[in-house]
């Protein structure tokens, strides 16, 4: 029986890998997700025949059924209700629950262990530290994304780094204590407490626009905490899955950092925007050079355009403008214009955020172009519409080596014949620097609130 | 020590599999990748079920909460991924 369960776990792990392989293309992705869910079902059913679970009898099964029912209800309600614009919050929350589960599993295993061996103790400590950091870090990330209690801005205070280092050392010391003397549960919970404070403090300095990195990294931590719990229980299903998720999160964080030309350390310490920038001030950049425009004028420009590229940013998500943008795109296409979307990897608040929003609004995915694909083509584009994006189209990244975004790959919209930037005001983006694009000869500013502004534009195009 | 080495072997090899598989996921699907990996990391439900079943009440309580957390991940993760993936379609 015991070996059969392990073979079923192996089947589940293979199905999980197949599920991730399916995500390599939108065509196969739905099926991949179904295979992974089948794997999960197999793993859960197999566990119902575990020696301990069988031993617990009817009481055990009833408790398991009750817990699964509660969790399934909560999970289903969140999954079916959540708005696509709020996906980063949902992923942050799920990362946190993953970390929390690992903390509790390791705590229970330590509590029950008779003569625990070295592997169990080290893995328990690791599970407790990583799990608690993930849980609290994710709650802070959720809060920042929701802008509920904490500001989206980085939070800094004196001696922040020394304090974090001290807490990390303290957590490691408690870990060592658990290994040397595992007799008391209290040591474990002290470790969890210290790691919880560390999780909060590590996440508060990370700014809103850096959240894609934080969310990806916490995703990775939740996987690693699960793998550690796997080492605690000697359970291969947990180890394999934990390492897959751990790898996924790390790769995504790397991709995000590369897309901002910043190191992971720089993002995690919340350094952007805190340094002094010697670049030109907003007044110097914009004075007398910014041209404002109206929906009617844009409609005329669009009327003669053969090729239009729309560049969305976080502002699109905030104002829920994706459906209005889709309407505009359909309208232009009905007049024979080619419309595509240029997606920067860090646009939005999590990896792939813009793609999901536009997919929700029924934009076909083959119109969503990655930065490397669209950049060489801007020279042949008649009109670029930048909607709620700023730093990802700021040419200072290429021209000013002292700028905080120096070297960041940008969407080179300035190469198009005309650029229209839809924005509420000239206020700077997350990087806190002015954007010379707004003052460029071929750039027109269309001031307004994302959704309403796009709707006004749709009306103007219809009339024209 | 023997079991540790085999567990470690599985861990390291699975990390490599993960890296190679994840690198093939296009940026288009990075959000479903994250929610999908949330769902499969709900595999901790397996460990949590075993904690519920242990005789000690403390572990049963921890196990119960852990099963709730993990099930939220599993059900919430797979459902929301399914919902999202259904939105990705090609030009008609």
| Radius of gyration of chain A, CA atoms, in whole angstroms | 25 Å
Assembly status: heterodimer
Envelope shape of chain B: flat
The CATH topology label of the largest domain in chain A is Rossmann fold
Number of domains of chain A: 2
Report the total helices of chain A: 18
Q: How many individual β-strands of chain B? A: 0
Uncertain segments of chain A are: none
Please name the two chains that share the biggest interface, counting residues whose Cβ lies under 8 Å from a Cβ on the partner chain: A-B, 114 and 81 residues
Q: Can you list the strand order of the major beta sheet of chain A?
A: 3-2-1-4-5-6
Q: Given the structure, what is the number of helices of chain B?
A: 4
User: Which class do the helix and strand fractions of chain B yield?
Assistant: mainly alpha
Shape of chain A: globular
Q: Fraction of residues of chain A in helices?
A: 55-70%
What does this molecule look like?
The complex is a heterodimer of chains A (464) and B (92). Chain A is α/β, with parallel strands linked by helices. Chain A is globular. A six-stranded parallel beta sheet of chain A has the order 3-2-1-4-5-6. The model of chain A has no long low-confidence stretch (mean pLDDT 92). Chain A folds into two domains: 174 residues, no CATH class; 182 residues, Rossmann fold. Chain B has 92 residues and is mainly alpha-helical. Chain B has a domain of 58 residues. In chain B, 79% of the residues lie in helices and 0% in strands. Chains A and B meet through helix 1, helix 2, helix 3, helix 4 and helix 8 of A and helix 1, helix 2, helix 3 and helix 4 of B.
Give a brief outline of the structure.
The complex is a heterodimer of chains A (464) and B (92). Chain A is α/β, with parallel strands linked by helices.
